[in-house]
Amino acid sequence: MEVQKQALVLVVDDDQLFFESMKSLITRMGHQACGAGSLSEAHTRLKSEPVDIILLDLFLPDGMGIDHIESFCQSPSGPALIMITGKGDPDSAGLAIKRGALDFLVKPSSIHDTRQAITRALTHRQTIRSYQSPQLSLNTIIGKSEPIRHCFDMAARAAGCHSGVLITGETGTGKELFARTIHENSPRKTHNFVTVDCAALTETLVESTLFGHRKGAFTSADQDRTGLVNAANKGTLFLDEIGEMPLSLQKTFLRVLQEKRYRPVGKTTEVKSDFRLIAATNRDLSRMVDEGRFRRDLLFRLRAFTLELPPLRNRIEDIKPLAEHHARGLAARYGIPVKQFESGFFAMLKRCPWPGNVRELFNVIEHAFFATGDRSTIHVMDLPQELRIEVAQLSVRMGLSAQNHQSTAENTTDEDLKDFFANGEPSIKDVRNRVESRYLEEIIRHTEGDVHRMLDISGLSRSHLYAMLKRFDLTKFLKK
Prior knowledge:
By secondary structure, this protein is an alpha/beta fold. The chain is 47% helix and 13% strand. It has a five-stranded parallel beta sheet with strand order 2-1-3-6-7, with helices on both faces. Strands 9-12-15-8-16 form a five-stranded parallel beta sheet. A hairpin with a 2-residue loop joins β4 (59-60) and β5 (63-64). α6 crosses α7 (175-184) and α13 (319-334) crosses α15 (357-371). The radius of gyration is 27 Å and the shape is globular.
């Protein structure tokens, strides 16, 4: 595929010399360049100009570039994004890629590396724009938010291939639901979808459960038994919470996964099973590998195709359709007229942290549904009391945080400002750095390094907080 003849590249950086350097390089490549010295200016340009590529600085006068990657990539022209910064930070690089950046360059980057990055981005963008997403039959998965639509697209791709799939995500995000959807849209849909809950397997009976056994193989084996792996022949084997699989079984299962052959307990001959594996976990398997609790070679096999499901707090626009869908289902199940929700009900739900994700939301809606009795409308007061208390406490904490910020600003004296010029004539960027550093030191002292309290008080996102702490070398003071 040939790269398009001319593209518009937006350089988002407050360093004018860097912009001029990039503009010269981009022009020599046969493309056009435009600049933005701040995030707000970049957003304005993206609304009116058909930008193809964005070169985005990490630190800008009005915020962190990394926190705007997703919104930039969702601009009308669908630009590809390259993160570029003067400070090397492996964690920021990883987070930038995870949020949608295609590349991460460190200044001063060579002309060759920069040209290659821009060319790769243009080629990728052309590929994506010409790609037609496979159609996915969705019967039970609800949502229209950008994060969940991305998961629909990934699930459609997974359904169209024969590779194994690893589904990751917090508890309650719908991992089994996505696994079933992939199976039901795959060529194996006419055969069994077999679920194995690895957390419920006892180490003494795990091989018998998976592979079956011969009568008399052990004391309670009073008849032959066909294992779950055989039941999944020509279909899909879903290993839920695979991080709980005993280490002693992982080597055996790796061979089964590679050869599609296994030996039932007590038998001398092997049996074949043509199954497709889908695994799910809420664990960090890479960390488990480092800790010696999960086999690296098995993880490599599982990662052929990875689907990461977003937590509900990252797709709050889906709360209303999810709640309405579940309420309609409850009404149909119990033969009750469909209930309505009072004004303000969903505003309350959107303020909840939802650690249990969609599963927790459904439990809350079910509680509220039956708490209404014969009433046709579900009210905020029908929600569980503990949920309303949690939201109220969170609101108070956020209000106190805002008051503290305002009080700090109001109590800044002339002497504080004069102090900035005691040892020179600092720029506004230097002053901002000193204020931010002082604030972070104080919040660490106040919370004793508790990250959760720091997030509540500061109002920052986790990624923004960590990036700031790293910038000032303060992560070593966090509570372990």
